[in-house]
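A favour, since you know our structure tokens better than I do. What I am after is a single protein written out in full by you. Could you add the entry underneath, on a fresh line?


***
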Amino acid sequence: MLKGFFHVPKAVNEPVKSYAPNSPEKAKVLEAYRQMWQSKIDVPLYIGSEEIRTGNTKNMTAPHDHKHIVGTYHLAEKLHIEKAIANALEAKTEWANMAWEQRAAIFLKAAELIAGPYRARINAATMIAQSKNIHQAEIDASCELIDFLRFNVEFMTQIYGDQPKSNSDMWNRLEYRPLEGFVYAITPFNFTAIAGNLPASAAMMGNVVIWKPSDSQIFSAKIIIDVFKEAGVPDGVINVVFGDALMITDTVLASRDFAGIHFTGSTHVFKDIWAKIGTNIHHYKTYPRIVGETGGKDFIIAHPSANPKQVATGIVRGAFEFQGQKCSAASRSYVPRSLWPAIKEQLITEVKSMKMGSPEDFSNFITAVIHEGSFDKLVSFIDQAKKDADAEIIVGGNYDKSVGYFIEPTIIVTTNPHYTTMETELFGPVMTIFVYEDAKWEETLELVDTTSEYALTGAVFSQDRYAIEQATTKLQNAAGNFYINDKPTGAVVGMQPFGGARASGTNDKAGSALNLLRWASPRTIKETFITPEDYRYAFLGE
């Protein structure tokens, strides 16, 4: 598994297409959208070489038109999960022994398929399944997934090329083996790219995978499966299952061959999984790798020296792109009183200018939240804010689920820095702002750092370099991805490796070599050329 004489293509970030009016890419994605809207696809379980249809199915619908069925997917029983594990382990030896450059070629081909013939389809599927507007679908399902696949190949070659020193009398080398067993990948609804990367990154390093996508993302996950198959991922390497999450997880974690989990989802679920792994620890062949990115209560803090227009734009984009359903979405902001009038005016003007509706209409900036459960939770907080004396909704606050799960971008201003929506993860288009006194900058930094159990993303806006340095130092544990004079969203693979700590995860930085190293188990090999034939050292004398 050494770098050898191969030169892997240098990874470059995939350019984002504009989808401007009358552009060919707009026409293509709309054609794909309309075809898929009427498709009524049937998604089986993918176990080994089999496509298994259990007959126990659930419907897939679009959040922006929840009465419209776009397809069905089949639910697994425990025997199917056990079969998936067996198939993965059966495929393991041949896959692990495959030359690394052959594995790399498969995923580089997958990247090119997404960049070319699958681009319109994967974007359209993401628009339908997750109600992303075309820009959000493009930067996620196409560009970020392409970047993950390409850059991970480059990171893999860097890892394999990292070798220890050797002397003339010995040769030392590191062999980067896959984990002994299989990896369990649990992926979220909000990013098609994450759904592709979590199983692919582990598989690229020679591991076999059981992949459970979110029920709310299966429609677009099907395109990823099609791409992987066409790219040449062998049967049994990535097995895809759907169904009762608790049953699937319990069955996987009960296996002696469970070797690791690659997870993105809620903090509560991740903690429960970690606890179950701990309970089963004496049963496993090896200590499982636990890699997870979980919740966030991501912040923006503005210094009195900040540019009000930049702060307002950062809040609007950071909080309301993809309806606030990004892991990195801003949901709490701290604004100095001196800047508040100008920021408030721009926030209200910009939010009122946003159109909301189906992603098929490219003039819509806002579409629907993912499902009824999310809608109802968000509405309960909005309604409570309308009643509370220490909260005021300055824009938005309306909602309607008769056709789709639509919630207006909503900004709450509170006089209580510990108001519930300043502390509770909501995962929707709700931003809460606390206006602080300019002289209390340092106190407010302390407030930002101590308010939340999470530490995923955060941003500071300031034109004062001393204040920037102060915030960067004070908030070093408050965000794994920290942004200066920019919104706290939009991490790019190869540029801003992503992940946070505290209750936001294990901070293993997707989009970097750090993450891939978690899916390798190095073996050190020392070969001595002239082997000693007498135990005696010089200090013993004759």
Notes: Residues 298-484 form a domain with the Aldehyde Dehydrogenase; Chain A, domain 2 fold (CATH 3.40.309.10). Residues 134-161 form the longest helix (28 residues). Residues 1-5 have pLDDT under 50 and may be disordered.
